[in-house]
Amino acid sequence: MVETLSVQALNRATLARQLLLAREAIPVADAVARLCGMQAQEPKPPFLGLWTRLDGFQTSSLYTAIHDRSLVRATMMRATLHLMTAADYTAFRTTMQPMLNNAMRVLGDRADGLDLKQIVPAARALLEEKPRTFNEVRTLLQDRFPNVNDRALGYTVRMCVPLVMVPTQDRWAFPRTSEFTLADTWLGTAPTSPALDELILRYLAAFGPASPADAQTWSGLPALGEVFDRLRPRLRVFADDKGRELFDLPDAPRPDEDVPAPARFLPEFDNLVLAHADRRRIIADAHRPSLTTKNLRVRAVFLWDGFAHGTWELEYKRKIATLRLHPFEPLSPSALDALTTEAESLLHFTEPNAKQTAVTVTDIP
């Protein structure tokens, strides 16, 4: 008889793996490896995401790991920027290439004239000379390929050349417009052969129990059902409340569904809200439309009793740091007290020079 896991049980299992049931005192690179990467569309969110997960987290520890090349910021899952360990980037970058190739379909007619056999070597040669911003790369490639759309040239380089962002002395380790360099130059080794089975096992360790559709949503890779079937002898099989098969590592944590889950604040773009096709384990279907803005920004959310109960934003003006809660539904007094305490700690972390902090709650729409 296949065991059925409730939405609550899936919530607690996922939170345990995502370091969200209790902060843990582990090195930042180990944490990023446990999470199988952190989406880093912007430089600041991983700092907040690790603060909410690690005991005693210091900005300097992540800053150092980025600068000593233990961690890299590069295009990976879903063709988006992620913070990855150098080892994981090297192990899984080639595995992502089919998905990155498919992502180029978004170019449509702008892809007219693209010849990867010419453009990729040309781009590599430019980046072997020195790190460059994408504006520089596009301009230089346009000079060589004047009949090809400049944006298509840049996108082709981003998808088809393994690159990493070069950190700087900026507060969050990267400027708004970063330079890129070749991954093999930065890390001293080239990406390895595809390792799809290992990637799926790592996904389950970080986000399981999960279905093939969940893994496809997280990675952007298609048709993963056959991979799960191949791995089936090594996995435990469960069912969700709708009878769908879920797979998991045999010894992965699956705590009791009644284990307490503390108030937590997740930054924008956090993978916890992006890593499953069925996201009810984190956010109710009715609230999913609130997660993404019209320009496709993924909003920061706060968790209460393990589930997303609203979004939040931070404002810093005139030395006053304000965190605004936008709940989906009314919050109980106990929830508001716990969230306010956690929010105050977050404000002191993000804006240590603030003379005043405030936590406010907006009215329910």
UniProtKB/TrEMBL annotation:
User: Which keywords describe this protein according to UniProt?
Assistant: DNA-binding
Do the record's keywords include DNA-binding?
yes
Extract the GO molecular function terms from the UniProt entry.
DNA binding
Q: Name one Pfam family in it.
A: AlkZ-like
What name does UniProt use for this protein?
Answer: Winged helix DNA-binding domain-containing protein
